From TrEMBL, chain A:
The keyword Iron-sulfur applies. Keywords: 3Fe-4S, Electron transport, Iron, Iron-sulfur, Metal-binding, Transport. It comes from Streptomyces olivochromogenes. InterPro entries: 3Fe4S_ferredoxin, Fe-S_cluster_ET. This is Ferredoxin. It comes from the Bacteria. It holds the Pfam family Fer4_15. Ferredoxins are iron-sulfur proteins that transfer electrons in a wide variety of metabolic reactions. Its cofactor is [3Fe-4S] cluster. The lineage of its organism: Bacteria, Bacillati, Actinomycetota, Actinomycetes, Kitasatosporales. One of its GO terms (molecular function) is 3 iron, 4 sulfur cluster binding.
From TrEMBL, chain B:
The lineage of its organism: Bacteria, Bacillati, Actinomycetota, Actinomycetes, Kitasatosporales. Pfam families: p450 (PF00067). This is Cytochrome P450. GO terms for molecular function: heme binding; iron ion binding; monooxygenase activity; oxidoreductase activity, acting on paired donors, with incorporation or reduction of molecular oxygen. SUPFAM superfamilies: Cytochrome P450 (SSF48264). PROSITE patterns: CYTOCHROME_P450. The keyword Ribonucleoprotein does not apply. Keywords: Heme, Iron, Metal-binding, Monooxygenase, Oxidoreductase. InterPro entries: Cyt_P450, Cyt_P450_B, Cyt_P450_CS, Cyt_P450_sf. Belongs to the cytochrome P450 family.
Amino acid sequence: MQTVVDLTRCQGYAQCVFLAPEVFELHGEEGLLYATAVPEDQVERVRQAAAACPVQAILLGEGVSAGAR
Amino acid sequence: MASDTLLARITDYANRPDPYPLYAELREAGPAVRQADGSYLIGTYHEIVALLHDPRMSADPRSRTTPAPYNVTRQPPFLRLDDPEHHRLRNSAMRPFGPPHSPGRVDSMRGEIVQLTKELAEVFQEGRQIDVVDDFAYPLPVTVICRLLGIPHKDEQLFQGWTDILVAAADIGPESDTADREQAADQARQEMGQYLVQLGEQRRGRPTGDMLSDLVNEPDAAVRLSTEDLAINTILLFIAGHETTVNLVTNGVLTLLRQPDQLHRLREDPGLLPRAVEELLRYEPPVHMRERVPLVDIDVAGTTIPGGTSVILALASGSRDPLRFSEPDRFDPTRPDNQHVGFGSGIHLCFGAPVARIEAEAALGALIPHLDTARLLQDPPPYRQNAMLRGPRHLPIQL
Ligand code: HEM
Ligand code: HEM
Ligand code: SF4
């Protein structure tokens, strides 16, 4: 599975980092880094992170891209 | 009825089981609806979110002059402070709790929380009558925060006791005598503060890998908390995480027992749970209202609200605003666009949300398999007094 964060929506609330710290990482206080290819054992956590993002900035699926909306 | 009595009607205990029609009336009358006592009530989503992000809106009750000035002299916790002081304290508390400094702390507690909810769920046996509040939801949040902080297990009961007293002081009805409870609360606050400070002292220089150890051993003197701030802010975690979490879990069970088709859906597909928890935060949220005070005169959709006036933001109404959510009165765990305000928004966005989500998911996950044949013994159940922090006092069910 792949994930893309729409960084124009992301507000740096870091809810995703709490739920899937191996996939999402906060760089400094605001900048968000993430792994686009989600390892098999992290898929469930990434789903939780996507549900929890207050601005719904996390897109999931096969072959998603930030322009997909 | 007159719209300037809306707040009085919402807080009227008789309307606790179903305030939602009043919220609909509020949104119709709004966006900004003046109340008879001079305060304002706001129930529309876009205005609520805008005000939660507006730096002119103070969360500090000491900014208030109308309807009545705030007369408690004790220093408020960061929940009710403004930046820069709010930021300083929240940031110090966040370092040992979450990213960027401690990204794994909350996640590493997941297994323990799941285990805890499984143990608590052992009372759910065929044929028994259970009170979901007292027998299950109530002990969960205090235990979790104790484990997070690193309180020795043998002392968890002490914290349950102190939290009980503080929470009871906050759930006062209009007619009750508050002086005794206030005094008990003051004492509980002091004892709890002293305990935390002493334990912190023991761990200074001898860290044991928990949040309290990290707080007292913070190497950067500029962010290290003073003893007083340490006590106030750790007490905040207990109180803020208590009734809120209890209400979310209990509202979850109530909602699912009222809508058996959704219960079955979640039983069949537990992968829906994280989204079901988000939908609960929108549909039956624990926190119904929060207060803010404009520091200067502000304009809200054409209404001028004078500086110093109490403004009550009805978050639970905003999350059911039809201008923002389609079919807002329907509970739908697969709702695609669910930017609710159940955890607030802006700089005071719930600090404990990541923990609360894991607790709610684990709790409902542990209970759902036992609810197949369960039924509510009282519907609506008896509610707590508090209209702003709303939830059942008991939820008796038959298994
Ligand atoms: C389902 C459970 C919970 C709900 C619905 C909830 C809701 C909220 C809301 C609405 C706010 C914003 C208040 C405002 O804007 O005035 C808030 C703030 C806060 N919450 Fe929670 N909360 C929950 C659980 C927790 C837990 C478990 C903790 C502690 C671990 C916690 C700690 C806090 C703190 C410290 C704040 C203040 C944040 C700030 O002022 O910057 N909450 N919560
Ligand atoms: C929204 C409706 C709420 C109402 C009506 C309410 C009411 C109260 C009252 C009456 C008290 C005790 C009196 C006092 O200390 O001044 C209190 C204390 C407190 N509440 Fe709330 N509360 C609400 C929501 C929340 C939320 C959402 C949080 C956290 C997120 C929270 C955190 C606290 C804290 C930290 C204290 C102070 C504990 C202490 O030091 O005594 N409350 N609340
Ligand atoms: S939860 Fe959403 S807004 Fe917050 S950092 Fe992650 S992607 Fe950004």
